[in-house]
Amino acid sequence: MERSGVINIYKEAGYTSHDVVAKLRGILKQKKIGHTGTLDPQAQGVLPVCLGKGTKLCDLLADHDKEYEAVLRLGITTDTQDMEGTILKESSVQVSEEEVRTCILSFQGEQQQVPPMYSALKVNGKKLYELAREGKVVERKARPVTFHNIEVLWMELPKVKIRVQCSKGTYIRTLCQDVGEVLGCGACMESLLRTRVGEFALADAIKLSEVEAYVIAHRSDAAETEEMQLPFLQAVDTVFLKYESATVDGQFRKYLYNGNRLRPEMFLEEHESMRTAPVRVYDDEGAFFGIYEYQAEKEDYKPLKVFK
Q1: Listed residue (188, 190, 204) closest to 69, CA to CA
Q2: What sign results for the dihedral spanned by CA atoms 120, 123, 126, 131?
Q3: Which residues are marked as active site?
Q4: Phi, psi of 25 (to 5 degrees)
Q5: What is the C-alpha to C-alpha distance for residues 15 and 36, in angstroms, rounded to an integer?
Q6: Fewer CB under 10 Å: which end of the chain, C or N?
């Protein structure tokens, strides 16, 4: 039996995102598992991991806004933009707390950010960090990112702890370095904790060791692992609870099962509000099938993402 859904994993320092997936495959005896966006090996925090048909969520969850807590270290510049890299320059920190606070908060809103060389982005089929390890530096185009909110949690110069709510594709390491450049003393990231990905919060995250302990405690042999119910596995449709739900009339099941577009009269009930946002669609037995969106020009509902 292939499980489908999402597990909100707390990624600990020392693991790559790929390590987490590989470890879960071994624990759960399931191959079809994927993560929803890379976290640096030394970073910690929320990493939603998708199983089975839930792997169709990977790109959607990767696009969600995220929240981080980071410690910024002024006066040090490194090749990786964090304390794990080689120190390129050390400077004295001759700025006031108020100057630092004003500078950090000035990054709120839409920005253009140049991705770091030590990142998983690909150029001509090769990851940037692979090129960086070969001593190569290639031109990277600035990309639009949005810092929805930045808070200074505490400050003991040369260290500052910040909380950042941002769009996808944002590098907190690069934000730290950019702050240092504006202040003139350089800076890098000392630590990073991801506290939220979309609706997945740190408080609900579970460590790999806890997943493994649960599986070991509730199985008597490997075969039973595949049938085991996992209380921390969230159903696919829970990711879309912000959308209205709709049920297809049983007589129109074949249209739903075949992945066809759905006409308004095929639903048990159709409301005007369903036409203004994506809709969670279920069959008449309560099974979740996917996300549909109303198309005014054709006056029907088009499948955006089908999970059955």
Answers
A1: 190
A2: negative
A3: 40
A4: -60, -40
A5: 15
A6: N
Distances (CA, A) of 77 to 178, 179, 189, 227: 10, 11, 9, 51
pLDDT interval class at 198 (50, 70, 90): confident
* C-alpha span between 23 and 260 (Å, rounded): 38
Dihedral sign from CA coordinates of 24, 28, 29, 31: negative
Pairing status of strand 159-166 against strand 66-74:
antiparallel
Beta bridge partner(s), residue 264: none
Burial class (CB in 10 A: 0-12, 13-18, 19+), 297: exposed
d(CA 225, CA 211): 12
Is the C-alpha dihedral spanning 8, 189, 14, 60 positive or negative? positive
Question: Helix, strand or coil for residue 172?
Answer: helix
Instruction: Check if the beta carbon of residue 202 is closer than 8 Å to that of residue 48.
Output: no
The total number of residues shown for the chain amounts to 308
pTM for the full model? 0.86
Which of the 8 DSSP states describes residue 55?
A: G
Three-state SS at 61: helix
Categorize the per-residue pLDDT at 138 as very low, low, confident or very high, splitting at 50, 70 and 90.
low
- Contact of 290 with 305, CB cutoff 8 Å: yes
158 cis-preceded (ω within 30 degrees of 0):
yes
- Asked if residue 60 has pLDDT above 90, the reply is no
Q: What is the DSSP string of 228-265?
A: ---TTEE-GGGGGTTSEEEEB-GGGHHHHHTT--B-GG
Contact 73, 157 (CB under 8 A): no
What's the number of CA atoms in the CB half-sphere (13 Å) around residue 150? 24
| pLDDT reading at 34 higher than 70 | yes
